[in-house]
Amino acid sequence: MRLLRSNLRKEEVLSRMRDLVEVLYQEIPSGVGSKGKLRLSRTDHRQLLRKGARWAVEAGYGEPEDLDRIESGGMLEGADPDVISDKAYERGMAQQGTLGSGNHFLEIQYVEEIYDERVAQVFGLFKDQITIMIHTGSRGFGHQVCTDYIELMEKAVRKYGIELPDRELACAPFTTEEAQQYMGAMKAAANYAWANRQCITHWCREAVMRVMKASREALGLSVVYDVAHNIAKVETHRVDGREMELVVHRKGATRAFPPGHPELPEAYRQVGQPVLIPGDMGRASYVLVGTEQAMRETFGSTCHGAGRVLSRHQAIKVAKGRAIAKELEASGILVRSAGKKTLAEEISEAYKDISNVVEVVHRAGLSRKIAKMRPLGVIKG
């Protein structure tokens, strides 16, 4: 997830929303099998896997200060291009700088409500402000890495005599060759994802500058934060009164580190980490902030999103005969999608209401509400 803030206010962009959505849709390829503007050589690809968002910035896609507001600076050390299969390379070559399908999106939003003025000010957020939220990852590259290593881990389970209640828990002891190879590959996929969101950010800026006929400085389109929600990282946490080094897996969960944590950018060290929790395309999204309670109770984690209540197949049945794009437009939300099927799968009824979910984590103290954003324009893969 990545959130961009701007100097623009809602009333400044409403008359140009249709143009904004259209230009962003044209500039940022989206959907299954979409191909980006970049054509990576094998050498470029290997460098990108090692350097992540840093590679993108060095290639001219963004500003050095963007890296300060990305988890791990947009680059995990120890990514290993040598443990990536030829098929994963093949799938990743053309998809850098593209928006995924399914629940992935690029959304133009406005800040509807501020819950904590002090922290919102630190994050650069204010009421009626235009923001852009980007949800996409490592595309077919990461999917192939996962497929490749599930096969390896299934063999490792038998090799090390591990008994599991479910094959989906395929694993290997962390210090083994299999696990270390996977960590090198997973870090490469995380770096691919950070580079991907960085390239998309660059094209977002160019599109908004063109439509709004404003300079980069005037727009102030900058990164609030970028954080993963499908990753395993080695972290230090307190367990039973003593500090331990753990491998923390966050799958469909997002990091929520508290004030003072050394991994946070200097700008946010006093208030805590921005936590980005998106909703569905017809409701809201939220910015929260990490807490000490999350560190004590959930290894510094909170939810990533609302969660589905209908399968994709069920959602398509519910949406049958409806014009979803027109329904959204009638509620003030313009949408562009690579296909009608995606819109049907992603209808609001397919998800829990994000406001209820966020209220739970807020009251539980796992992260605190800072701002609520409403969608104005949505691009779906």
Tell me what the structure shows:
- The chain is an alpha+beta fold and 381 residues long.
- The protein has one domain (2-380): tRNA-splicing ligase RtcB.
- The protein contains 14 helices and twelve strands.
- The protein is globular.
- The model has no long low-confidence stretch (mean pLDDT 95).
Task: Indicate how many domains the architecture comprises.
Answer: 1
From the N-terminal CA to the C-terminal CA, the straight-line distance is 15 Å
State the CATH superfamily name: tRNA-splicing ligase RtcB
Q: Counting H and I runs of at least 4 residues, what is the number of helices?
A: 14
What structural class is derived from the secondary structure elements? alpha+beta
Taken from the alpha-carbon principal axes, the silhouette is: globular
- Residue-averaged pLDDT, rounded? 95
What top-tier CATH class fits best?
Answer: Alpha Beta
Architecture per CATH nomenclature, i.e. the level-2 architecture? Alpha-Beta Complex
**How is the biggest beta sheet arranged?**
8 strands, mixed
Helical fraction equals 25-40%
* Oligomeric composition of the shown chains: single chain
Quantity of strands, as a count: 12
Whole-angstrom Rg: 20 Å
CATH topology: tRNA-splicing ligase RtcB
- The amount of beta strand, in percent, is 15-25%
Order of helices and strands: EHHHHHEHEHHHEEEEEEHEHHEHHE
Low-confidence stretches: none
